[in-house]
Amino acid sequence: MSGSFQFRDLRELFAKANEEKSGDQLAGLAANSEQERVAAKRTLADLPLRAILDNPLISPDEDDVSRLILETHDRETFSTLQSMTVGELREFILSDETTEATLKGLHWAITPEMAAAVAKLMSK
Predict the structure, then answer these.
(1) Cα–Cα distance between 62 and 18 in angstroms, integer?
(2) Residue 89: which of 75, 66, 110 has the closest Cα?
(3) How far is CA 5 from CA 21, 73, 81, 109, 120, in A?
(4) Cβ neighbours of residue 80 under 8 Å, at least 6 residues apart?
(5) Under CATH, what is the fold of the domain 48-124?
(6) Is domain 1-46 classified as CATH 2.30.170.30?
(7) Tens digit of pLDDT at every position of the chain (124 positions)
């Protein structure tokens, strides 16, 4: 299904994976159909976390918060996750074997965009 839809970049992919919102529709960012939204979520699930880190949604050159996130990012801990996809991170987070201490240890390794991507997969 996701093969029939193309997403220009991560911004479009993230926007199309959102649940339907009037603000997204008014801004022209919403998926044009439920099929496109599902395709976006499937594509997002297969996206490597490294791709999100390497392609920030907001350029750190233009935004102080984005720059701070990258400057404080725990790259050493992230190296244990970098081969995971968004879907695999979702499964890891939801696993009964994953402890609260493990999740707390990942706090600085998972960027807000990665967390948002996982949240998109958990909605409807």
Answers:
(1) 24
(2) 110
(3) 20, 32, 28, 31, 18
(4) 109
(5) Annexin V; domain 1 (1.10.220)
(6) yes
(7) 445 899 999 999 999 999 888 777 887 888 999 999 999 999 999 999 999 999 999 999 999 999 999 999 999 999 999 999 999 999 999 999 999 999 999 999 999 999 999 999 998 6
Residue type, 60: P
Secondary element (H or E) of residue 53: helix 49-54
Residue 55 corresponds to which amino acid? N
Locate 33 and state its tokens: 């159909």
Could you give the residue range(s) of every CATH 1.10.220.70 domain in the chain?
48-124
Supply the pLDDT for residue 3: 53
The pair of structure tokens assigned to 86 is 């968004």
User: Where do the CATH 2.30.170.30 domains begin and end in the chain?
Assistant: 1-46
